[in-house]
Amino acid sequence: DPLGFNDTFFSHEAPAGAEIAVAHDFDASGAPFASFFPHNRAGAPAGSQLVMSARDAARWLGAVLHGGAGESGALLAPDGFAELLRPVASIPSGIRASDGESSRYALGWMVGPVHGIPAISHGGSAITMGSHFLLVPEQRLAIAVLANSSSEVNAIVAEGIASILLGRVPKRSFPAIDAAYIPDRSSWPQL
């Protein structure tokens, strides 16, 4: 393993005793409770539901900042890895772009500015867990938000941390949560 991952696997393949956070959900009052690791076969081909420790997330983001090179080698040739981050499609203003500026989509990455500074990001969620990775390559800055719940808050936290580290004021705040909302969980165990 060129990146030196020790605690990374698909959620449904977690070995017994693995040091992973317990997935959580929220009850009608908004209180968290331990839930389950979802397994959605529809998302598996895309590589979704990959679970990693904070240590492995740091290794991954370090490799992204170093053109795909990790502790003991590279994932791809430098030009191949650069292709992963090359924007290929435009994203309309306001969608996953905290500055309200146009963003572009690369292979799995959003490419767009954070306070006018070029950045790349990738968010993920699987009902009861979520993440958001944000990198500002020019500043050699990488942020990983790993959560045992899933919401837009993960991206807001990542953007807020980046803003503070860049000496700026965060532009977005946390969304209001309707404590009366009760999602239909009846089909979740079958995912």
Summarize this entry quickly.
Helix content is 17%, strand content 26%. It is of the alpha+beta class.
Describe the structure.
Helix content is 17%, strand content 26%. The protein has helices at 54-65, 78-84, 153-165; strands spanning 8-10, 24-26, 32-34, 50-52, 69-70, 73-74, 89-91, 103-105, 110-114, 117-125, 130-136, 141-147. It has 3 helices and 12 strands, in the order E-E-E-E-H-E-E-H-E-E-E-E-E-E-H. The longest helix is centred in the C-terminal third of the chain and has 13 residues, at 153-165. Strand 5 (69-70) and strand 6 (73-74) form a beta hairpin. The mean pLDDT is 80. It is α+β, with helices and mostly antiparallel strands. The strands form 4 sheets. Strands 7-8-9-10-11-12 form a 6-stranded antiparallel beta sheet, with helices on both faces. A two-stranded antiparallel sheet has the order 1-4. Strands 2-3 form a two-stranded antiparallel sheet.
